[in-house]
């Protein structure tokens, strides 16, 4: 049953991605002419994210109100499904690690959606990405970044790296925050193995396992008040405490799952 479910979902995923690619590339010239490229990308990204959540059997529960653009939003990071969940709820551009740009399919889709790529190992890349973030917000859109720097298994929230929060601290800009979480049905592999993507997990195998799940319960909670601080390290720490305070672990060690 699991294999059949995954096999049935693959064509639907491919169809959604193909339509999204065509919409972005065919509509881009008209959007550029109208000065609305960013808004067009955001609309298409939001459409394909919602469509993919339906295909994947994701039931999304949203708590709180999403920020109104333009905004800077931080969230904990559990895996690639985070992108779909957040993109379905808010019109935004994402800040992602540079390696994703070279991934088959996912990289091309991220580039088409206006993702901002950053080489976290290069200090010289930070100012460039910070400038790109400011430009996106000046266009009236939102920016989402995952300050943990990597996805986790969902047993906690890793410390937030303050480097990309420097522009917000220097400009005394409010930073919004959100908390992500997942559950799977009884009898299915737990979320920390089947939904969260972390460590040395191979992407193809993990994706097939996710496609085989009967459904996924996703939670997205938006903080009620943004955080402002002139010190980037203090800002990162305050945001981390906010997210940690609302975080529900995805790890389930019962019934022999490790």
Task: Outline the structure in words.
With 258 residues, the chain is of the alpha/beta class. 44% of the residues lie in helices and 15% in strands. α4 (106-112) links the parallel β3 and β4. α1 packs antiparallel against α2, α1 crosses α8 (203-211) and α2 (37-55) crosses α3 (81-89). The two termini are 23 Å apart.
SSE pattern: HHEEHEHEHEHEHHEH
| Spans of at least 5 consecutive residues with low confidence | none
Give the C-alpha Rg: 18 Å
Q: CATH topology, what is it called?
A: Glycerol-3-phosphate (1)-acyltransferase
Question: Major β-sheet, in short?
Answer: 7 strands, mixed
Q: Which band does the percent of strand residues land in?
A: 15-25%
The CATH class designation is Alpha Beta
CATH structural architecture = 3-Layer(aba) Sandwich
Overall mean pLDDT? 87
Query: Which sequence of strands runs across the widest sheet?
Result: 1-7-6-2-5-3-4
Find the structural class using helix and strand composition.
alpha/beta
The beta-strand count equals: 7
Number of helices: 9
**N→C terminal distance:** 23 Å
Percent helix, as a range, is: 40-55%
User: Could you say how many structural domains there are in total?
Assistant: 1
Shape by Cα distribution: globular
């Amino acid at each position: 049953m699991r294999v059949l479910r995954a096999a049935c979902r693959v064509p639907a995923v491919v169809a959604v991605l193909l339509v999204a690619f065509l919409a972005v590339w065919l509509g881009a010239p008209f959007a550029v002419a109208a000065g609305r490229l960013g808004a067009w990308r955001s609309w298409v990204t939001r459409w394909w994210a919602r469509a993919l959540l339906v295909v994947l059997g994701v039931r999304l529960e949203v708590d709180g109100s999403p920020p109104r653009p333009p905004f800077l939003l931080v969230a904990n990071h559990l895996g690639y499904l985070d992108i779909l969940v957040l993109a379905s709820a808010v019109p935004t551009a994402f800040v992602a690690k540079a390696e994703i740009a070279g991934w088959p399919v996912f990289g091309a889709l991220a580039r088409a959606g206006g993702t901002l790529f950053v080489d976290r190992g290069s200090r010289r890349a930070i100012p460039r990405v910070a400038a790109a973030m400011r430009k996106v917000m000046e266009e009236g859109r939102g920016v989402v970044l995952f300050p943990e720097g990597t996805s986790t298994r969902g047993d906690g929230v890793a410390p937030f790296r303050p480097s990309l929060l420097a522009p917000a601290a220097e400009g005394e800009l409010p930073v919004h925050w959100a908390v992500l979480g997942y559950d799977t049905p009884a009898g299915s592999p737990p979320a920390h193995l089947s939904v969260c993507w972390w460590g040395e997990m191979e992407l193809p195998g993990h994706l097939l396992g996710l496609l085989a799940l009967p459904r996924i319960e996703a939670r997205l909670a938006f903080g009620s008040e943004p955080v402002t601080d002139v010190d980037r390290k203090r800002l990162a720490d305050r945001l981390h405490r906010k997210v940690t305070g609302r975080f529900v672990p995805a790890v389930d060690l019962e019934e022999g799952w490790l």
